[in-house]
Amino acid sequence: MKILFIGDIYGHVGRRIVADHLADIRSSQAIDLVIANAENSAGGFGITPMIGEELIALGIDVLTGGNHSFDKKESYDYYARQPRLLRPANFPDGVPGSGIYQNQTASQVPYAVLNLQGRTHMTPIDDPFRKADALLNSLDPSVKIRFVDFHAEATSEKVAMGWYLNGRVTAVIGTHTHVPTADTRILSGGTAYQTDAGMTGPYDSVIGVDRDIILHRFLSAMPVRMEAAKAMVELHSVIIDADQTTGRALSIRRHTICGE
Ligand SMILES: [Fe+2]
Ligand SMILES: [Fe+2]
What we know:
This protein is α/β, with parallel strands linked by helices and 260 residues long. The protein has helices at residues 11-28, 49-57, 76-81, 128-138, 155-164, 211-220, and strands at residues 2-6, 33-37, 62-64, 100-104, 110-117, 145-151, 171-175, 185-186, 192-194, 201-202, 233-242, 249-258. 47% of the residues are buried.
């Protein structure tokens, strides 16, 4: 079975390139399961109920999140209502939503999607490694397809998570840096890995934000008002082919589409 994972969808230009191409990718690549990180889908900051439903209606089965998951207050109730929308599982207890989603594909293949967030150079939340253990232990052994979006800043923490979960999950794919990495590989235990899927959004920017604004911030050290950039839109994703009987990844490759 084939899994498509789309990296951080950024703002309306990111949503538009997904809307323009997802149906074609889904059919031409025979995709069974579509997962996308949507923490920046609302103008770069968070997600709203309307945008969440829009992305699900496009054919995304599971939406993952990260440090921007709760940027929009109107999303708090939505997390409780929409189980397909995840936030990192290792946020403190009591935070709205969940970090794990389980279902079956159209061809009845059970799967689980886990969302975790790193702690290096990020808000110090609960331990993502031990949270991963707890979540994986909670799964029925019949659920072989197990996908992890590890939302983290440090490449070292992401590589470490890949090795920690090697052989226990189908894939560990990183998000958050908005820069795709070229270390696409299958680890020794059959886990597909890439440090960062890259952003699906405007690359004429500094990780999605208008570049003049960010340059001003670096040159002046003054606070700035962030605004989403709009040009050089690219869709960055990975396509994983997995053995549904073992959960092992058979192949992984990057799939990139350049828009305007
Ligand atoms: Fe992001
Ligand atoms: Fe992030």
